[in-house]
Design a protein that fits this description.
By secondary structure, the chain is an alpha+beta fold. It contains 8 helices and 8 strands, in the order H-E-E-H-E-H-H-E-E-E-H-E-H-E-H-H. Helix 4 runs parallel beside helix 7 and helix 7 crosses helix 8.
Length: 188
């Protein structure tokens, strides 16, 4: 009852729900996350067929930073709409047992695949390339990694940088982000 009251208060005060929905697995959820069989090569192809990119987010039960990401940037209408329009987002549980299939056909539980891909922090978002690289795994093949919960500007800039293929340019993400901050300040 208290949680419902707090949620209603947040809606009245801020105009949007501040509490993130939590699934049976204890992970925060967004209705626009995609549920798949967690075959990375197939998921990249599915995203490509929709004209989108694949982003894989690792979270864990009770993660306060995951909650901050869900209640902050992922609940912001501008950020959520940009992501939904340009990315297929698949959620992984850092300590989960669901089977995941990597590019090379290796199938492991989520928690073992997280180790294989070098994911040690939640939330961590891995941005996948448009084409599956031969003989590589998704951790090494990712074109960018976003480790942690950042604010609206950083989150939006990272997704935009990946969409624009900034990783193929000479402009490092940090320089891109600094430029975007200056542009936003000038337009205010």
């Amino acid at each position: 009852m208290m949680r419902m009251f707090v949620g209603l208060f947040a809606v009245l005060l801020f105009g949007q729900t501040a509490l993130a929905e939590v699934g049976e697995d204890g992970l925060h959820k967004k209705e626009w996350f995609t549920v798949t069989f967690k075959d990375v090569a197939e998921d990249i192809q599915d995203a490509k067929s929709q004209g989108k990119r694949l982003a894989m987010i690792f979270e864990q039960r009770g993660c306060i930073y995951c909650r901050q990401l869900h209640e902050g940037p992922l609940s912001d209408p501008e950020v959520a709409e940009f992501i939904k329009s340009n990315f297929v987002v698949i959620q992984y549980n850092l300590f989960g047992d669901e089977e995941v299939t990597d590019f090379d056909g290796t199938a492991l539980p989520e928690k073992e695949m997280a180790k294989r891909w070098g994911v040690v922090f939640t939330p961590t978002i891995l941005f996948m390339p448009e084409k599956v690289p031969e003989g590589d795994n998704a951790g090494r093949a990712s074109v960018a990694t976003m480790p942690g919960a950042f604010g609206k500007g950083t989150t939006l800039d990272m997704f935009t940088w990946v969409k624009e293929k900034g990783y193929e340019s000479d402009e490092h993400f940090q320089k891109y982000h600094a430029r975007r901050i200056q542009e936003r300040q000038k337009s205010q």
